[in-house]
Amino acid sequence: MARSSSVIVVGGGIVGLAVAARLAQPRPGAGSGCEVIVLEKEPTWAAHQTGRNSGVIHSGLYYRPGSRKASMCQAASASMLAFAREHGVPAQRCGKLVVAVTQPEVERLRALQQRAEANQVPVRWLEPSEIKEFEPKVAAIAALRVESTGITDYRAICTALAEQLADHGADLRLSTRVTAIRADGQGVTAETTGPAVRADALVNCAGLHSDRVAASGGQRPGVRIIPFRGEYYELRPERRDLVRGLIYPVPDPRLPFLGVHLTRMVDGSVHAGPNAVLALRREGYRWLDLSVRDTCQTLAYPGFWRLAKTYLATGVSEVARSLSKQRFAAALARLVPGITADDLVPCAAGVRAQALTPAGALVDDFLIQTGPRQVHVLNAPSPAATSALEIAAEVAGRVTAGLRATNG
Length: 408
Known about the structure:
- By secondary structure, this protein is an alpha+beta fold.
- It has three domains: 6-49 and 155-223 and 364-406, FAD/NAD(P)-binding domain, CATH 3.50.50.60; 96-147, no CATH class; 224-361, D-Amino Acid Oxidase, Chain A, domain 2, CATH 3.30.9.
- It has eleven helices and 21 strands.
- Strands 5, 6, 7, 14, 15, 16, 17, 18 and 19 form a nine-stranded mixed beta sheet that branches.
């Protein structure tokens, strides 16, 4: 693909910037990369999902064997760490513990060990005395040690990607919202809050607004983004010694999320969470953040009510924990009994852009849709930050193939 090929990338989170960097990168035997224009509606990069997550480099432990999440994480746990180190971003491979505190959880932990083997993720089974070597304050009867898990600063990763794009001559436009997309036989036009932008192709990495961007380009996403707010606390500085690394509960396969966990960040702070509650705005980081449009679209979607019926008890429990620091602390104390409500300080919440089908099923894998001169990343929640470089490789490959086919 020649340098004259141009691509618009909508969204300045880690996936959008990684895709743009991959497209702009010169390729051996193909001359220069694409001319890339990145359009981000916020005044900074990584303003939403990327900049508000727990900073974990995931190993691929949990995901369905053969899924994109599983296969991409196998490579990503190494490639993201290597990228961070190459660009001077704080990162370390610290490992984590997944701990069982009851006998039924031990059985689930055995099943998780089998999934780890299927996903080729090395794990080590730990008995109680061995657990204490890693996390002295944990109360558990068994655990899995996952050495390939790491931590980094994804905002800093995005800064490095933006600098890389600038070095390749990319057109980086902050505070530029896409309002409409028009595709024709010759290219794609993005109408924005600034001047319109014309290119040969467009990639949608708009996260919380990805379904709307796809629809504005004439696509039928087939899913709706439902925003779930994840609320976090952090341990007071004088109580950080309760946690050495990363401590996770055994996930319940009947439930869609992992449950609250403890994560030591690269700056030494210890984050606790997240829980998961419906956000009343796609960028609703507090209960008071309300969008009538967003809420009405959620409530009008049949899939939401089917999901709510399936997980009614779980949803009520999550809301109760959101409203009570004591309940939040009690969930953490199952893992580390020394934690109390007095040890917790609120910190920034995040919102997960979760794709939901009309049947009420949460899309459990990355979802990428291709149309004429367009590629839409429609579901990229965790572990998308970990897997951003691998997602970028697939998306760039689709863009390249699409342009070659279009140009004959």
